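Shipment paperwork, digital attachment
Item: protein structure file
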Amino acid sequence: MKGLRVHKQVSKEIDGLDLFTRQRLTELFSLLMAGESLGMPVSRPMPVIAHGAHEIRLKDHRGLYRVFYYVKAQNVVLVFHFIKKKTNTTPQQDIEVGRKRLEDML
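Attachment content:
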């Protein structure tokens, strides 16, 4: 069983989600900590950020969200970025922020 480390800014963003969406995210984090691999449509790889980086894809009545996580760290899942989707592609600025936060957490 792996641990879970969440960037402080991501924690704040998750706290702003509705209860159902937070519960779903907690379930997904539990699966990741147990060593499960999540696949589409729930999660997809984000090699543009790093090998081992992925995004969880969430949707609620207020919009679409992405939570970036990294599974290649020893004994821990790193959750390093959160965005509310406004376009079909991930903005370059969010990719850069994700890379920097992941680097800082590693």
